[in-house]
Amino acid sequence: MTSNSPRAVLAAEWIKVWTVRTTGLTLLLTFALSTGLGTLVALSWRGDIERVVNFDPLFAGLYGVTLGQLALVVFGVLLVGSEYSSGSIRASLCAVPQRGLLYGGKVLAGTLVALAGSTVTVIVTFAGAQAALGPYGTTLTADGIPSALAGAIAYLTLICAFSMGIATIVRSPSISLGVLLPLLFLSSQGLGNVPALKPVLRYLPDQAGLELMGLAGPSADGRFGPGYGTGTALVILLAWTAAALAGGYLLLRRRDA
C-alpha cells in the first residue's frame, strides 16, 4: 500500500477530521440543538395539547433536526474551509498530489462522520420528543416513522456533503456560510409562502429535506410544502449534492492552492 493509495488517504483524512478542534464541538452542538429543541417543543405541546393545530408527533420529533442541521453545515464547511484559511491545503497537496484522490478521501471521511452523527442525533431526538409527549407520542415502528427517520438521516448526511462541496468552491468558511445559510433557511422561514417564488423555492435543498422527513405541509393548502413525494425529494437532494461536489472537484483541479 503506497502512501497515496485510497486507503491511506482516507485514513489520513479521517485523522484530520478529528484533529480539527471544532469537529467534536459542532457534532455535539448538532446533537444538543436537535434533542433540546425537540424535547422543548414536545413538552410545550403536551402542556396545551388541545390548542395545538394539526398536531403531529412526527413534527415534534424532528422539528429540532431542521434547526440542528446548522451546526452540521458548519462542520462540513470548516472541514474543508479551515485548510484554506490556515494554508494547510498546500501541505495536503504536497503529500497527495492527486487532487481527485485527496478530495475524494476528504469528502468520504467527512460524510461518514456526518452519517454516524446524524443517525444518533435523529434517533435520540425523535425518542426524546416522544417520551416528552407521553401518551400523545408515537413509536419508532409506527406507520411511516422508519421512512421519515431514514429520510432525516439521509438529509443531514447529504447536506453536510453539499456544504463540503460549496466550501471547496468558495474556499472561505465565512463566505461559504454566507451562501449556505440563506439557501437552507430563508425559503422555509417565510419566502416559501410567497406565491410568485414558490415554484422555484420548492426545489431548494431544505424543501426537499422537509418532504423527505415527512414534515412538509400539503402543497394544496397554500403552505410551503413542495408536494412532489419522497422519491423526487431524494433525487433533488442528490442532484444538489452531486453538483456541489462536482463543482468543488473541477475547481480544485484547475486552481492553485
Overview of the molecule:
It is built from ten helices and no strands. The two termini are 27 Å apart. It is 74% helix and 0% strand. α2 (22-47) packs antiparallel against α3, α6 (145-170) runs antiparallel to α7 (173-185) and α9 (205-213) packs antiparallel against α10. It is globular, with a radius of gyration of 19 Å. It is mainly α and 257 residues long. It comes from Streptomyces scopuliridis. This is ABC transporter permease.
Write the layout of secondary structure elements.
Layout: H1 6-19, H2 22-47, H3 57-86, H4 89-95, H5 99-133, H6 145-170, H7 173-185, H8 198-201, H9 205-213, H10 229-254
Protein name: ABC transporter permease
- Quick one: how many beta strands? 0
Shape: globular
- The portion of residues forming beta strands comes to under 5%
Class per helix and strand makeup: mainly alpha
Task: Describe the main β-sheet briefly.
Answer: none
Separation of termini? Answer: 27 Å
Give the mean pLDDT: 86
**Portion of residues within helices:** over 70%
Please trace the helix and strand order, writing H or E for each element.
HHHHHHHHHH
Enumerate how many helices there are, as a single number. Answer: 10
The whole-angstrom Rg is: 19 Å
**Poorly predicted regions:** 219-224
